[in-house]
Amino acid sequence: MPKDNKGVIRRIHKLLLNKDVSCQELTKRYLEKINESNLNAYINTCEEVALESAAKVDKKISSGDEISLLEGIPMTLKDNISTSGIETTCGSKILKNYKPIYNATVWNDLKKVNSILLGKTNMDEFAMGSSCETSFIGGAKNPHDLGYVAGGSSGGVASAVAGNIAAYGLGSDTGGSVRQPSSFCGVVGLKPTYGAVSRYGLIAYASSLDQIGSIGKTVEDVSIVFDFISHYDDKDSTSHPGIKFDTQGNLKKDLKDLKIGVPNQYYEGIDKDVKENIISALKVYESMGAKIEYFDLPEIKYALPVYYILACAEASSNLARFDGVRYGYKASHYKNINEMICKTRSEGFGKEVKRRILLGNYVLSSGYYDAYYKKAQNLRGLIIKAFDEAFSRFDVLLTPTSPVTAFPENKSYNSPEEIYLADICTVPVNIAGVPAISVPCGFDSNKLPIGMQIIGKKFHESKILNAAHQFEVFTNYSYNKDLDMGVNL
Ligand code: GLN
User: Least C-beta-crowded within 10 Å: which of 23, 74, 131, 420?
Assistant: First the structure.
């Protein structure tokens, strides 16, 4: 057991309260480290905004005012979360220089408590990808080995948190984009229940699947952030009324008699190292008193095609607004409005985004709607039902987060399907709208991190965070990492 299993947020909070470091000094140190870093984790930094908030926090502390837990904590947002007056590019040339005129609700909340926004982090273009490499500035690197990707699409947040250039961050997860990069970078990532966190101001990819989630060094960190950002928001019509979480209060509960379901289908075609580590994790749970049972979840075989049909269909509609008229990039030479829109979109979007817009239009076209889109919607219903049934028997499900560990940089793929296949473990969760967390559970033979996924019933975030925290404390994979911030964190 580690001597001190406090997360990064509580450690920084204590330092600030004890005046061991001022918030401005700490912020400057983080900004310096970002500038020195070769992780390509940030698309833009925002020194002025960060230092202005830090000054406010220092003033409060020196006048003896109370500060809340997230106050003064240096953090980051994925670059598809709208920040008023601060560039928000979605990792795309089409939104280069775009400054939103309003804040996403999550940022509004965090700003109110003087969170220190260090900058906006790198991502696959419009969150489409699994390696971060479709970003217009190139991918974020994996701090465990710079020759490997950080994962995607929220690769920048995961890389920044793992590389100690943000205490925590928010990403978005449509098919795994919070969990998979967390798994690749050896950090913790939570995808909340659909409707638990407001998505107002999140630039949409696939609206029936998108969800904002937190990434941190430890389960406690993501739990603190989740408790704070999850609430009803009348600006998001999918926000769930009347929710209030205290997942932190439940972290220390023992796991005696916790029923863990292990779906057999998730263990087919998984890398040997990944499989072995997950099996060891199951043994750890057994030793903590949990009951493990293997069971069949055959509907999972439909998840990948269902996801890619629905996500592309929704994306083709959501991305229609980028036309060079209202905001973002606009082609410079054109003869008429049609040519302007056509050139703007051809020059502004990257290859993967174009592929998905075409696929989406295809599955929605009148001749193919029934064969693809409608069929995918029906199968989505089957998958939701299968999860409902599983949760009538089990408290949580345990699976790998990804069938593989981080890919080498610039890996060439024979086809896009090859990379889509690596999303197999994460996409079912978004299809069903349930919460899931990725927690580090070991390393492969190249010393790259492995993540396991704990899936819960809708709005049962407390349960999965509790199961994840108990494992983390027992195994120690998330602790004892030197933060090296020039102060004793
Ligand atoms: N890799 C998946 C995709 O490319 C998931 C992305 C996401 O969750 N934003 O669609």
Answer: 420
